[in-house]
Design goal:
Elements lengths: L1 H24 E2 L4 E8 L3 H14 L3 E6 L2 E6 L6 E2 L12 E10 L2 E10 L4 E3 H38 L15 H11 L8 H15 L11 H25 L6
Parallel strand pairs: 5-8
Antiparallel strand pairs: 1-8, 2-7, 3-4, 4-6, 6-7
Helix pairs in contact: 2-3, 2-4, 4-6, 5-6
């Protein structure tokens, strides 16, 4: 009898320890990551580059202030990141902030990734968030350097062509080629995508972000707004692509 009681006590203690570990392994505290960069261009030009980058990565502009932009991104149905599971980085609900200042010799920017407090992270999930945020920041930095190199080469070509002016993609984010690439990237496509691939990607985006999909699912209002804004941006990108690629008669 005494042995049986001892076994039951040990089993209960083991279950209690597992529960404590689960509680310690999850947190509702906001998970965040940030970093800074500088570039030998104006703050306005740097802001344009980063805005184009974040929009093509699925971000929606929520608010724009003097020297500060706020973006939203993510799937409002995601509530926990227990580990590095089969979930896309862009599905993690978050708010991103980008701050800009003019500095001697160029511009300074700070980008911050803030996970929503409605999402619970385990220790492994937090590591996943930090690692992906760092990788995305490095991609943004690579884009800035790429644009700077392109601008330098364009200036050389302009000088050789007797001063014919050409607009820089860094300063003119509404240039036709830049917008075309951005629209394709918003749908997860490359420049050589066919019209059929554009249509398929648009249908997938509609199934994910259409407001009707969130009805009756008890989703928080601000997350619904993010999905609605994303749906509008995807629809606008699709319309521009349809105008450029030429819609087939049967479509």
């Amino acid at each position: 009898m005494g042995l049986l009681v001892f076994i039951l006590i040990v089993a209960a203690a083991a279950q209690g320890w597992k529960w404590v570990r689960r509680q310690q392994d999850s947190t509702s505290v906001n998970v965040r990551w940030s970093n800074e960069l500088t570039a030998p261009i104006s703050a306005a030009a740097l802001r344009t580059i980063l805005r184009r980058f974040l929009v093509t990565r699925g971000c929606t502009v929520l608010e724009t202030k003097d020297g500060f932009d706020i973006y939203g991104r993510g799937d409002p149905q995601v509530r926990s990141i227990p580990c590095e599971r089969d979930i896309g980085w862009r599905e993690v609900p978050m708010v991103l902030g980008a701050m800009f200042q003019e500095r001697p010799g160029g511009a300074w920017a700070k980008v911050t990734f803030n996970a929503l407090s409605t999402v619970q992270f385990s220790a492994a999930g937090t590591d996943f968030f930090w690692r992906q945020a760092r990788a995305e920041f490095e991609d943004a930095l690579a884009l800035v350097n790429h644009v700077l190199r392109e601008d330098a080469e364009a200036q050389k070509r302009d000088s050789a062509a007797n001063g014919n002016e050409r607009r820089s993609c860094a300063a003119e984010n509404d240039e036709r080629g830049c917008v075309y690439d951005a629209d394709l990237e918003m749908l997860g496509l490359r420049r050589d995508a066919t019209w059929e691939q554009v249509q398929a990607a648009y249908r997938d985006a509609c199934r994910k972000y259409h407001p009707d999909r969130l009805n009756g699912q008890n989703v928080e209002p601000h997350l619904v707004e993010l999905a609605v804004e994303r749906f509008k941006e995807v629809s606008a990108a699709y319309q521009r692509l349809k105008d450029r690629l030429g819609q087939p008669q049967h479509a």
